[in-house]
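Minutes, project check-in
Item: structure for the 116-residue chain
Input as provided by the requester:
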Amino acid sequence: MVLCWPMPYLFSYGTLQQEEVQLCTFGRCLVGEDDSLVGYVLAQQPIDRETSVRISGQPVQPIAKHTGSQHHHVPGTVYAVSEHDITLADRYEVESYRRIQVTLESGKRAWAYVEA
């Protein structure tokens, strides 16, 4: 018997949606669909890692802050990715972010990077 685990999902509301960032981080462009993160709002986060700023072109990037309110939504894109892709995304993100599992508005369970 062969067990097949579903591919993980990665939700992005920021620079991981950019083609240049995906090419530099994953070596390819990801295919995703619109979704949103419930219970969070966007704020701005200065980024001090030179590599991340060079790849994204943005010294200040969005960061999702938890509010718990069902009225707050952060729009973004959800991607089906591999476990290796998650590792690569972890390397791209800076210490201000932490990766957590979330349930998106669509009902999909996904990894998302939110305020640490």
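Outcome recorded: The two ends are 40 Å apart (CA to CA).
No further action items on this chain.
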